[in-house]
Amino acid sequence: MLYRNLKKMPPGSAIAIGNFDGVHYGHQALIKQLLVAKDNGANAAYVILFEPHPKEYFEAQGQVSRIMSLRDKYDTLAKLGVDAVFCLRFNSQLATQTHESFYKDILRFIQPSVFVLGEDFCFGKNRQGDIAYLESKSKLDKFNLDVIKHKSHKGLRISSSKIRDVLLNGDLASYKDYTGREYFFSGRVVTGRRLGRRMGFKTANININSNKLPLNGVYIVAVSGNKISRDSYGIANIGYRPTVCNNSLRRLVEVHIYSHDQDIYGERIAIKFMKKIRDERKFANIDELKEQINSDSVFAKLYLADLTIKTLI
What is the 8-class DSSP label of residue 200? Predict the structure, then answer.
């Protein structure tokens, strides 16, 4: 379940707090310990996170790339075994709240049995509340603290910021190294201008805030949804479509799904990114664009065929 009101949280629970953008191995370590705490007697295993991401609130009017939507974040946490997610709206009141007030109004209010936190966890205005402050309150307010150390890969600390950087560079392999899964996002299919259909490449346009996605270009993808067969693949473009849309300020997500002709308007689909083919670029005319899309599609099908052969060997 996803809640937006802490009053629905029963006392005596195990609580993890953070932004959980990307749900990487560091986040997964917190969730693993959270479930241990539940097995050891806590009433439930809950996560508290913030929406929008505090970085979106403070930096450049919200134009910070985000790895996951709230929906995808919740779904991923639920699959890891979390009982419920509580989402706090990050607004001016929360941004200016002192750490003492945040502790009294939120952390003490929920009466946890245990907090499971990363070692650099901070809270309150100017991040003045920290693990040491919580330790000073734990005995009086009768809760335990489980502090989880950072996770590293090849000597580098795993963080959401690092993951955003590798995605912006098209490095999908490193994303999998940091999270244990391929990068994905989901969204509803909406009606577009049908330009792809007129060029011979029917596309599904995805309703998502693509200006905040940490990806750009053309990718080989796997696609899933209620009306899509299990092993469906295709190519996706994320960008401004400069050949057909001059000076567009809004990026779009379009997916051409192979061997699929069902009406999926209004359906929520998930797109898993397997390999980057190229960056988006502007072509001289529509014919050049069509030729490049054909070339991209041939490359993708050869890649998928090779992948199938390797799987069978």
Answer: T
